[in-house]
């Protein structure tokens, strides 16, 4: 994980792909909930590992409007990247079935894109809808699709494989389960309602049919919109305010840092991004044995409000040189927040949009819980890798976390009207 302090400010204007309310469309059979129009929160996340931004005070989302939020499917960048954190998430990776190739992959992406478009609009799936979400509105549902390194060999598209998709280097803190890592295809599902999210997960699995089989699947969650008195940076399962310095869509260099330019290489990745996915287990029993002061020294921020130990508020600039009466650094040299600062990593930036997870309690009473870390960047070798290498060399948080699964996926730009995701790759 990486804290990369991020302020909670909304973009100056709605970003393309931001949550909007349907206009000019009749109400579907899933009647939308609530009466207030939902604006949706846009969360940024960059450099480091754990950050979000949120709307200004006074823009809190009433609980009665949660079901009403709708995210458009046909956008410049795929949905599920710049939208706000969602209350429920599912990550699922597939491998193409033996004998399946480019033709089968194209047909699958066409099916998945049609299903995503329908479900995100609050409509039922085209075939065999399970009715799980019949009574709910869209609930901010997003579906995001990506391709893994192995996908290109299986479809005969090796020449179209991006250099940025080269396998990530090994890190000393890795304890990776290969069965729960990588994959030919990756789908991220997020929603503000658990049934809506599960409905989408089931539809995607059914659509795979005989073309692909599940390699691994993970479930996550975040705080529900409207659960706090006012919008605020989320907390992770360690109780820390997590992410106070993510890049914001309003930043002048946001697009350059997070998305592949329209004239970038390869051409089919124009307006796309690269997602690094890591399952990071938090060793909560060990963490919770630390005193409050010890926990704050590990992170470099106050637990109560996320302010840097050097003083101020959550968004105050961290004073890395400040010392106490005994001459000791107020923010320890190996504090997580110090190490992950972009200005300590050559400006490395990534947009973090994670989920927490809890997969039960082991036989010895230890919780299997932590973070489904997801970060977005135009080039993982300039975003994720430099920061993770720095963390690998002496992050105070390292003894309390364990990286157990990993994946890297090329996520193409959004599909235009009449197109499906990945069409320029598969039919180019």
TrEMBL record:
Q: What is its main location?
A: other
Q: Which cofactor does it need?
A: heme b
Which residues are in the Dyp-type peroxidase C-terminal domain? 233-415
Instruction: Tell me the keywords, alphabetical order.
Output: Heme, Iron, Lyase, Metal-binding, Oxidoreductase, Peroxidase, Signal
Looking up InterPro entries in the UniProt record yields: Dimeric_a/b-barrel (IPR011008), Dyp_perox_C (IPR048328), Dyp_perox_N (IPR048327), Dyp_peroxidase (IPR006314), EfeB/EfeN (IPR006313), TAT_signal (IPR006311)
What's one Pfam family here? Dyp_perox_N
Task: Provide the protein's localization.
Answer: Cell envelope
Give the main EC class.
oxidoreductase
**Locations of Polar residues compositional bias?**
1-10
Q: Which residues form the Dyp-type peroxidase N-terminal domain?
A: 78-222
Specify the superkingdom.
Bacteria
Q: Does the keyword Iron-sulfur apply?
A: no
Q: Which reaction equation describes what this protein catalyses?
A: heme b + 2 H(+) = protoporphyrin IX + Fe(2+)
Task: Spell out the residue ranges making up region: Disordered.
Answer: 1-25
State which Enzyme Commission number(s) the record gives.
Answer: 1.11.1.-
Q: How is the cofactor bound?
A: Binds 1 heme b (iron(II)-protoporphyrin IX) group non-covalently per subunit.
Matching PANTHER family: DEFERROCHELATASE, DEFERROCHELATASE/PEROXIDASE
Role this protein plays: Involved in the recovery of exogenous heme iron. Extracts iron from heme while preserving the protoporphyrin ring intact.
Which family would the database say this protein is a member of? Belongs to the DyP-type peroxidase family.
Q: What is the designated name of this protein?
A: Deferrochelatase
Provenance organism: Streptomyces thermocarboxydovorans
